[in-house]
Amino acid sequence: MENGSTKTTDMDDLKKNTIISEMKKYVQKFKAPDGSLYDGLPLQAVQKLASAFHLPTREVEGAALENKILPSRYSRNIGTIGFKGQARLLKSKVAVVGLGGLGGTAAELLARLGVGQIIALDAETFEESDLNRQLLATEENMGEEKTISAVKRAAKINSSVEVFPYQIRAGEKEFREILKGADVIIDALDTFSARLVLQKTAKDLKTPLVHGAIAGFVGEVTTIFPEDPGLDLIYGLSHKDEKGAEMSLGAPTATPAIVAALQVQEVVKVLLKIGKPLRNRLLFLDCETCSVEVIELKS
Amino acid sequence: MEIELRFYATLVKYAEKNKIPQFSTVELEEGLTLASFLEKFGILREHVRIAMVNGKRAELDQVLRDGDRVGLFPPVGGG
Prior knowledge:
The structure holds 2 protein chains of 2 kinds.
Chain A lengths: L3 H7 L2 H11 L4 E4 L5 E5 L1 H10 L4 H10 L3 E2 L6 H13 L2 E5 L3 H13 L3 E6 L23 H12 L4 E6 L4 H8 L4 E4 L4 H13 L4 E7 L2 E7 L6 H4 L11 H4 L4 H19 L8 E6 L4 E6 L3
Chain B lengths: L1 E6 L4 H6 L5 E5 L6 H7 L9 E4 L2 E2 L11 E5 L6
Parallel strand pairs in B: 1-5
Antiparallel strand pairs in B: 1-2, 3-4, 3-5
């Protein structure tokens, strides 16, 4: 469970230079969509180098990016994220709390992005009612623990991504223990009380929290930094119940995918300090009327 | 005064109850607060998680003004 960034920093210059000179043998010129050429490193080469130098593949990819060599698998990220940004993502740790409709999609996207370490937390196993929307659920894995499915899925998508599974119904104490060290936490839970406990933990750990929730055709996203009021303002007017409009409207297929994608965009912005995260603003999306409201939460 | 109203998700039922479209403009008397507006339209406070006026979260004692755009949002918690 050692953080990858520590190892990369510790890698001595000599070893790094040896890897880079070996790496250059595998570099190929690839054409970017705009026609420009870049030095690309195919996946197979990354795996060979990792094996030869006894390193995790993400450290080989990190070393490549530092030397302006682009692991081909990230080539479509670079125009937006850049070499430095991709290297930063590989060194990042993001927690996905809840692996249902939101969390399963978020975990998939984080693995494709190349976020190096993912903490995956859920207490449940897959059942048939998950199949309509939960990306990790398949007919073959009914009854399987959701965190185990997340580990398997990430391994299939990106071997540079390490998933730390926590199959547990966590309270504040467990959250604090499990989530410490995360750079950003994704709230993909499904009860108000658990979301509030998670927010408290994120604030105590001084970790940004990206909240998402859905019901029927609608969904919401906001990004809560430790000093922000966050859910206190969102749940302000009234909150006695555990659940919301989803009890009658359900969770149809596309809504959680859309909201999870927006949550992952927020994670990228927070990790790379780019763009304008939804701080003290709640994005409320109604796909039925194609309306987007961005509500200023603080007056 | 004219107020633009937007009811979302489960709150659309209140638009139907008042025989107005989900997104509509209504004529109201001056000086109405958000709370008195909710009462007038028979909207239960506990069904409204956030009330928005002109893009900002509003408290129930806020006085509505001509041309305000009011949005009402129910609690949403699915994951």
